[in-house]
Specification:
4-stranded antiparallel sheet; 8 strands
């Protein structure tokens, strides 16, 4: 037989539990991803140039909110993400072979909490690199000819040293008045 004190404690605990369940307000839920383009599990013949994520409520974006990475580690460059209410749009430059890709996203819910998730899709053909329009050529820049930046710094330093050496010799060679 349970002593009266113990039965009173058990009864109080049960009443407390019932009161908590009955009178507790609904839990605050975070927003959820309702739709995406590409869709979860999609198999695409052509790589998308824009990603779209639709959430159940307005969201805000942290820095670098979306990444796309292939199974082999290939990362797609992403442009500036924009948000309109609950819709996040991100331009991408697809690159890489036909394989499985994971789109990883992060948004900030109305209550200020970070919410993250993933969307898995695959390409059935390699992503095609962007090309220039027929008849036009890409501008040639110093970066595009393959000369590393450190080499330019070295050339500048050597040139500056040469100017200093010539200047010192010029000053030493002058007759004193």
């Amino acid at each position: 037989m349970i002593p009266r004190r113990a039965s009173g404690a058990v009864l109080a605990a049960l009443v407390g539990l019932v009161v908590f369940v009955v009178f507790a307000g609904p839990a605050s839920a975070h927003t959820e991803l309702e739709a995406s383009s590409p869709a979860e599990g999609a198999s695409l013949a052509t790589a998308p140039t824009q990603l779209e994520l639709t959430f159940g409520e307005p969201v805000t974006l942290p820095p670098d909110p979306v990444k796309v990475i292939g199974r082999d580690g290939t990362a797609w460059p992403t442009g500036a993400a924009t948000v309109a209410g609950g819709v996040v749009t991100v331009p991408v430059t697809p690159s890489g072979p036909a394989q499985a890709y994971t789109l990883t996203w992060q948004v900030v819910a109305k209550d200020g909490d970070n919410v993250t998730g993933t969307v898995h899709f695959s390409l059935t053909a390699p992503a095609q690199a962007a090309t220039t329009a027929p008849g036009s050529a890409a501008p040639v820049t110093l970066d595009s000819v393959g000369i590393p930046g450190w080499l330019w710094v070295l050339v500048a330093v050597v040139g500056l040293l040469a100017v200093i050496v010539v200047g010192v010799r010029q000053l030493r060679g002058r007759p004193k008045d």
